[in-house]
Amino acid sequence: MHHTSENPRRPSVLHIFKIYYPDLFGGTLTVIRDICASLKDSFASAVLVCSQSAERREIVVNDVPVERVRSFGNVLSLPAAPTYPWRLWRKIAEHDLLALHAPFPLADLVFAFGFGANRPLVVHWHADIVTHAGLRWFIEPLMRRTLRRAKAIIVSDHALIENTPLLREFVDKCHVVPFGIDTSGYDWPKIEPHHVNDRGRLVLACGRLVPYKGFDVLIRAAVNRKFEVWIIGEGTERPRLEQLIRELGLGDRVRLLGSVNDSERIKLMCLSDVFVMPSVTNAETFGLVQLEAMAAGRPVVNTALDTAVPRVARHGMEAIPSAAAAWDCQPGRAPSPAIPPQPSGKACRPSTARPSPRRARNPQPPPSRRRRPAGWTPSGLRPHWPGRTCATAMCVRCSARSGCRFRWRSWSPYWAR
Hints:
The protein is an alpha/beta fold.
């Protein structure tokens, strides 16, 4: 008698989003890629997205099949891909589980009309609709029907549930799974700043060049300052940022590096003195790149948004504490008259303590963010102009180096546990 051993069939998962590699690089795409890679032994993953590329419709990215539905551009940040709902409907029957990465109204349109009701749906909620909030009257009912039929809703932090009215309606379905990164590639040898440039400290920022990222804030902060700014990323804002750099005469100190591969980004992160995340709206919900900065041992400057951003790099711990303190800790600087001098050695030294595993899995807000009076800004900081609470202009001057090297645990989606 012959015994044949066959590998059991792996459940198949269809990841649904509006764009994917290699058309764009970003935090949400990294999350999808890492989910597919980390679960490849247990699940057969596939991705359905939109693309403006005229190249092949079906490609393979990191051993994951990706189908790209033709898009004719973007309308109000939404791909103009009229055949996407039809393709999604056809693909649903081929998979055991659907993983929607929201917000994506084209997919909501399919689920709202009941298609694919015989397949379990998990929603990864990455952000609320902020940029085109005027369309909520049309989109929100579709999103509500999608969340109603979802088996589970995955969020990266409790702040998203607390500050998103639509999620609060389905709080019993929400599960918090913080993002994580692979830190094995960040053990670079120490590189001194003077090996990089002779124009002051090196400030690094990374992200898609879109309005909510606030890179224009960072560029304006470099005027008449002795530091250099390198920005990694591509996007629709590039022409406007290039014009702003020319108008401010910063061509020799502000560089737009475009898209770079992972190894080059890690190298640049280890080269930098300070990492800045100047996002200005709640469209920035987590800031995965902050974990990369911490893995590289770099102090972080972020903004006081009502999302997980200031909870990932916490005020006065992983993030630089205040503008005045950052100024005071520079050698040769007179104490800021706005704030009393800080005790020696405590002004802006990022914490070197490693977070416990429980802390890394579920970071909590600092006490200063639990109850905030109207008009609150962290440690006396003031926005550059009304509506933007951003510490960038002074905080990026800090020359402190962080000794912290965080090791966030490897994470898996709720449905893979």
